[in-house]
Amino acid sequence: MALSARKLQEIERTYPEGLSSKQILAVLDEVGEPLTEATLRKYVQLGLLPRSRRVGQKGKHRGSRGIYPVEVIRRVDEIRRAMDQGDTLEELARAAQAVRAKLALVRVSMEEVLGAAEADLGHRELDRRSKGPLRSELSDLKRDAKAWLKSLEKWSGELDRASVKNAGTSTPKTASRSTPRGAAARAAATPTARRKKKTTTRARTKKAAVGKGRGAKGGTSAAAKAPSRGTRRAARGAGRRSRT
Length: 244
Fold this sequence. Notes:
mainly alpha
């Protein structure tokens, strides 16, 4: 089941500084949306979730641990909603989900930078005349940063809506009714077609041979019937003698 907006806001208020991978799995399991650590790593590798940042732990020799921004819970919920509608992880990785995942990381990093700048300003030994304008300028930077993030998130949402709209109105391409040349050539090369072609060729060759034979016989009989030149001369000479 999908998480409600109220539950997401409650989780984000509880973990404003972010969550470790174990905390993410525990929170999702608690709300009835279990997630394995392997799946969490896969989401990160595909760019659907921001990478964790190393945060030092209090106390000696405790090292650091990876902390994910709290927006990860909301991103996981969005990924599962999209997958329930038929989208694949690869499709989501190419879509605006990846943009929003990176925006979550940018938001956390920007808040850290602005927080460090404010702390640095507070530690500087400056008079009020110098510190006042600097503090005012830092406030303007914070406001501009939030406005920039909000504008980019809005653009990402518009991209999602445009993609859904185009997917609903696009029509699949219909196949052509005409037979492709390649298919016609393959059909002509079948054994049955080859046998038919050989039979036709043989029939034509036999018919041509019969025709030639008949022509040769006709020529021989005609030559036999026609008198030779010497015979014709003898006949003419005999005719003249008989007249005299």
